[in-house]
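Give me the fold.
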Amino acid sequence: MSLREDGLRLTAVYWGYRAVERAATEVPERAGRKVFEWLGRLGYETLPGVRTTVAANQAQVLGLDPRSPLIRTATREAFRLYSRYWYDTFRIRALSPAEIDRRTRFEGAEHFDEALASGKGCIAVIPHMGNWDVAGRWVTAHGYPLAAVAEVLKPPRLAQLFVRHREELGMRVIPLEAGANVGQQLARLLADNWIIALVADRDLSGRGVEVEMFGATRRVPAGPAMLSLTTGAPIVVCTAYTRPEGWVVRIGSPLVFERAGKLRADVTALSGLMAAEFERAIAAYPPDWHMFQPGWPT
């Protein structure tokens, strides 16, 4: 691919990604962390539109005016933690499984075992929190078969880098693209007792399910609940938090509810349970929620 094929903006995105990936993997860790902290501060200072969006999301979660001093502090911290997310995401490929274990407190792995005991697989739903790539690396290093769905990014060579990155973490990657029969691929993996990881706190299709979170209505994707109801695979909610020297990952028990017998109503009810778990997880430390797009329609 060339500048002529990708265009100036997409070419810049691709080479920017390559540059930060190289900085994270090749620069000594102490210096690399300082570089990414500086990038987080730079983003906060120079991206007023994004800063306003993040502040609005933090204000909704905390129930405060977006102009309040606490929201400014939370927004600044959100930029820092998001920059830290990108550093860690690239850096973990260079860490041994033993080092991942040392830096990660993983709670609730027995809930994976409980969910997989039925032989129908398990759907692990994740909000954009902490570092879900670290969670995936831990899961695959401990012998669980894990697949994830990935957005198809532009330019195509950038999408290839994302797929390569996740595969190097031990995950199988299913591209979310037209004509790929993604649902059928996931159903087959679940039938083989795989864990399917789905980041599910943001609806990209516009056809998601309305749920209430933090006192206002927003949409989450219907896919996780639909997949669970049609395959029998249980849903567990996974959350990750950033800590100074590593991460905490928590796996919840399988979601249980009484089915009404109508698919639409059941999808809505199960999605609501998922959203309620996301709400509790985000409330525990709002700046660690990497929601840099409008979280609510208003």
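DSSP finds twelve helices and nine strands in the chain.
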